[in-house]
Amino acid sequence: MFLSLLPSHHSFTLHPHAHFSPSPLPMSILRRLNLNLRNYHRHRRFATVSAAVRQDTTVWTNAPLSEVEPVAESLFHVTVDLSDAPDLAASHTRAGQYLQLRVPDVPKPSFLAIASPPKLASARGVFEFLVKSVAESTAEALCALKRGDVVELSQVMGNGFDISRIDPPEKFGTVLVFATGSGISPIRSLIESGFGAGKRSDVRLYYGARNLQRMAYQDRFKDWESSGVKIVPVLSQPDDSWTGESGFVQAAFTREKQISNPLSTGAVLCGQKQMTEEVTSILVADGVSAEKILKNF
């Protein structure tokens, strides 16, 4: 093992039948070896302490579930009662923020975007989530719980969607919103928070799902449209009766596009990584400023 630590200019040639008795290593190499070992152990101790500090910084709050209901195929509406945790409820200040949630007997937490607008937390003392139940995951365990079961919530995290970057509405008349699957969750929070959609000339939501059975919040579409948001559902695997947009969200947008003035256009994206990357590339190529393309992660 020591030979591997020697400088490259040291070499040894042994006769096949020779008996080798290791001679003492030069003091310079021994000092270097001891120094490396001390640095290694110091680094390991620092990493261990740092990991412990990171773990200890998460503050968990116990809160009961007030609702767990299926809203689409593999998607559940989950409401957590924060009436005994007003500080946590008040910490949700911007659409697009998220937190960690733990369920009993499942050590790994799940990261969930808050689907309800901040005003709902202050008015009713609840957080609402749209949760995709994935086999053998924390989310699946959460969706199997019942009203009254207690979960643990971390502090609210993230900066959310910084709408100030596409304000005032009169200057940024076009806002293009893109979501896929459960990525509609923070988009719901944004729409229901109000971002001046009614004061803008062109606000479109391209919302992608496999089919209508997997598309959440269809019961809210009418209200969203009345607030000034045009809904463009996009189905990747529709049935034969579907007459709307099909394929992927980015392809549907490319077919329609219609950006009248890139300099007065903003965008909000949440969903699959491929979708967000491709839509971003399309928008930037068309002259939309990258600073005006908002994401919550």
Structure description:
There is one protein chain. The chain has a 6-stranded antiparallel β-sheet. Residues 1-23 have low confidence and may be disordered. The protein starts with 26 loop residues before the first helix and ends with a strand. The longest helix is centred in the first third of the chain and has 30 residues, at 27-56. By secondary structure, it is of the alpha/beta class. It contains 8 helices and 12 strands. α7 (249-256) runs parallel beside α8. It is globular, with a radius of gyration of 27 Å.
Write the layout of secondary structure elements.
Layout: H1 27-56, E1 61-72, E2 75-81, H2 86-90, E3 98-102, E4 110-113, H3 118-124, E5 126-132, H4 138-143, E6 150-153, E7 174-180, H5 184-193, E8 202-209, H6 221-226, E9 230-235, E10 245-246, H7 249-256, E11 265-270, H8 273-285, E12 293-295
Parallel strand pairs: 7-8, 7-11, 8-9, 9-10, 11-12
Antiparallel strand pairs: 1-2, 1-6, 2-5, 3-4, 3-6
Provide a compact summary of the structure.
With 297 residues, the protein is α/β, with parallel strands linked by helices. 29% of the residues lie in helices and 24% in strands.
Name some characteristics of this structure.
six-stranded parallel beta sheet, 12 strands, alpha/beta, 297 residues, globular, six-stranded antiparallel beta sheet
